[in-house]
């Protein structure tokens, strides 16, 4: 989670842009968190399974939630 999320922040800061992770509607941190959490709990069961499930979890959160704007459902309406 730290390398995926933190690396993007450092990269964007070096090139002088606002980090994508801090922009409204970004779910990088959430995706990284759930991927890391799934890996942590499954690595005690089966290490190869943990790798596969954590990759899938991260991709699902990152791509599907971002693409369809599912994060909008959880925001408070003004």
Describe this structure in words.
With 78 residues, the protein is mainly α. Helix content is 64%, strand content 0%. The chain is built from 3 helices and no strands. It has helices at 2-14, 28-42, 47-68. α2 runs antiparallel to α3 (47-68). The protein is flat, with a radius of gyration of 14 Å. It starts with a helix and ends in a 10-residue tail after the last helix. The mean pLDDT is 80.
What ranges have pLDDT less than 50 throughout 5 or more consecutive residues? none
> What is the number of beta strands?
0
What is the CA–CA distance across the termini? 31 Å
User: If you compute it from the alpha carbons, what radius of gyration comes out, rounded to the nearest whole angstrom?
Assistant: 14 Å
Percent range for helical residues? 55-70%
Strand percentage lies at under 5%
Assembly type of the chains comes to single chain
**Total helical elements:** 3
Reported for the largest beta sheet, the result is: none
**Helix and strand pattern:** HHH
Structural class: mainly alpha
Large-scale geometry: flat
Average pLDDT, all residues: 80
What's the topology here?
Elements: H1 2-14, H2 28-42, H3 47-68
Task: State the gist of this model.
The protein is mainly alpha-helical and 78 residues long. The chain is 64% helix and 0% strand.
Task: Give a quick set of tags describing it.
mainly alpha, flat, 78 residues
């Amino acid at each position: 989670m730290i390398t995926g999320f933190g690396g993007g922040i450092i990269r964007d800061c070096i090139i002088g842009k606002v980090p994508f992770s801090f922009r409204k509607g970004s779910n990088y941190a959430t995706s990284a968190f759930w991927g890391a959490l799934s890996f942590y709990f499954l690595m005690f069961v089966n290490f190869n399974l943990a790798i596969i499930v954590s990759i899938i979890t991260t991709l699902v959160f990152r791509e599907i939630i971002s693409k369809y704007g599912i994060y909008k459902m959880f925001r408070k309406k003004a």
